[in-house]
Amino acid sequence: MNYKIINKQVFEQAQLRSISDVPFTEEESKNGMKLAVAKADETLALYIVDVDGQKKFDVRWDDSSELFNGWYSAWDNFTWCLNVVEKQK
Description:
Elements: E1 3-5, H1 8-16, H2 26-31, E2 33-38, E3 45-51, E4 54-61, E5 64-68, H3 71-88
Antiparallel strand pairs: 1-2, 2-3, 3-4, 4-5
């Protein structure tokens, strides 16, 4: 596995059902909740963020960020980025 799961409970919930009820700490409300991070490049991470009261997935890498409404599209993007990171090594 070329990534590390940071919050296993929410990571598993995101795959199975809505994340709208995931509670955030004050810090997570500002910066997002990190779910997973690439082992080879810690600037690549998958977050849940709150955008105007809606929870969304955010794939962050270096200084870029891309928001997704659904798990599958966010996970596809994250794994695509993981593959790019692995090829760069």
